[in-house]
Amino acid sequence: MGNYLSTIKRARQSKKHRERNTHYKSLLKTAIKRVLSTKDKKTAEEALGKTVSLLDKLASKRIIHKNKAANQKSRLTLFVNKL
Q1: Domain regions of the chain by residue span
Q2: Domain 5-82 belongs to what architecture?
Q3: Which of 42, 47, 49, 59 is 20 to 30 Å from 82 by CA-CA measure?
Q4: Strand ranges inside the chain, DSSP E
Q5: pLDDT attached to residue 3
């Protein structure tokens, strides 16, 4: 780490952003697992709605890429429709 104030501030910001991003990514992984682990279509649809909302939120905050969000939504929707 450098001695300039700007590099010290950037290091603080990077740490804060990294912690926030890992928190949101953990929430996303849990939500996806919740959808994929259900066997009942009704509960899967409810979980899918919450997961799609979370994917859109993370894509708008640029925590994940918008194309990744679209791919995940498509994959989960196909899974729920096959139930």
Answers
A1: 5-82
A2: Up-down Bundle (1.20)
A3: 59
A4: none
A5: 78
pLDDT of residue 38: 93
Residues near 25 by beta carbon (within 8 Å), at least 6 away in sequence: 58, 63, 64
Alpha-carbon gap, residue 80 to 40, rounded angstroms = 9
- Whether the CB-CB separation of 31 and 47 falls below 8 Å is answered with yes
Please tell me the pTM assigned to this model. 0.84
Three state DSSP letters for the chain? CCCCHHHHHHHHHHHHHHHHHHHHHHHHHHHHHHHHHCCCHHHHHHHHHHHHHHHHHHHHCCCCCHHHHHHHHHHHHHHHHHC
